[in-house]
């Protein structure tokens, strides 16, 4: 979150300063550099950059929203599959009760780590200890000794569901660092600086213009901040809800 906030401040400051530089350049350039023909050419070039920037900004918002929705869906499916796994073990019989208790305890720990929003704590979900624990849990399911055809089916179902549970978990964790290249954001920020510099070049110097330049700079940099937050849906201000997972925990073991 702090990293994204710093990027937001840097882009805001850069864009607003470029607008002020444009207003300053207006007072220093010779009049024939700002005549009607020159202004038309500059505005056409700036309009091309503004169109490209708008398209890229829209694509980035769409990509970040897709990442957010994908992780949210993975975690919801994970919660449902956890309940399915718990029910399969419950139907197996009392022999699987220790596995159900272990599953609920482990899942509660995972949810606590995810809900922290701390990137370092979330990274613990990929630690060798937890990965080894996952492997051992699946081995314990495979080590059950079914005595009836129904128990054989339930054991196979539990193994299949456990694969789905851990696959969804890994898919969600793969998104924790984001997918949008920082280089693309830097290029977009540079385009915004050029656009606002052009705005300032042809704007009169008064407080109303300065105020609206300030608002527009905040809006543009705020959009990039939201993109960065949505692209990392496990951390920051805009992050996925773990409410379905907590609801699943409350129903497990019953």
Written account of the structure:
The structure is a single chain. With 254 residues, the chain is an all-alpha fold. The protein has one domain (2-7, 38-251). The chain has nine helices and no strands. Helix 2 runs antiparallel to helix 3 (97-115), helix 2 (36-92) packs parallel to helix 9 and helix 5 packs antiparallel against helix 6. The two termini are 38 Å apart. The relative contact order is 0.21. This is DUF4239 domain-containing protein.
Average pLDDT level: 85
Q: Which residues form runs of ≥5 with pLDDT under 50?
A: none
Structural class: mainly alpha
Largest sheet: none
Helix content: over 70%
The H-and-E topology, N to C, reads as HHHHHHHHH
SS element count, helices: 9
> What is the end-to-end distance?
38 Å
Beta content comes to under 5%
User: What is the count of β-strands?
Assistant: 0
Shape annotation: rod-shaped
State the domain count: 1
Gyration radius, in Å:
27 Å
């Amino acid at each position: 979150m702090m990293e994204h906030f710093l990027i937001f401040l840097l882009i805001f400051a850069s864009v607003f300063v470029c607008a002020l530089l444009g207003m300053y350049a207006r007072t220093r350039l010779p009049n024939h550099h700002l005549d009607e023909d020159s202004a038309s050419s500059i505005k056409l070039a700036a309009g091309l950059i503004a169109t490209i920037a708008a398209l890229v900004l829209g694509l980035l918002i769409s990509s970040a929203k897709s990442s957010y929705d994908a992780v949210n869906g993975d975690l919801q499916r994970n919660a449902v599959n956890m309940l399915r796994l718990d029910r399969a073990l419950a139907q197996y019989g009392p022999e699987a009760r220790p596995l159900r208790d272990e599953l609920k305890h482990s899942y509660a720990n995972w949810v606590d780590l995810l809900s922290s929003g701390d990137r370092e704590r979330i990274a613990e979900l990929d630690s060798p200890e937890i990965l080894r624990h996952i492997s051992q849990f699946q081995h314990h399911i495979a080590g059950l000794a079914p005595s009836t055809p129904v128990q054989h089916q339930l054991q196979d179902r539990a193994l299949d569901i456990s694969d789905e549970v851990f696959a969804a978990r890994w898919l969600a964790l793969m998104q924790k660092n984001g997918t949008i290249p920082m280089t693309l954001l830097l290029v977009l920020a540079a385009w915004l600086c050029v656009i606002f510099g052009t705005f300032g070049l042809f704007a009169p110097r008064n407080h109303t213009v300065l105020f609206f330049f300030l608002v527009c700079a905040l809006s543009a940099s705020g959009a990039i901040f939201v993109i960065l937050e949505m692209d990392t849906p496990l951390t920051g201000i805009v992050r996925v809800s773990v409410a379905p997972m907590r609801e699943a925990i409350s129903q497990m073991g019953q």
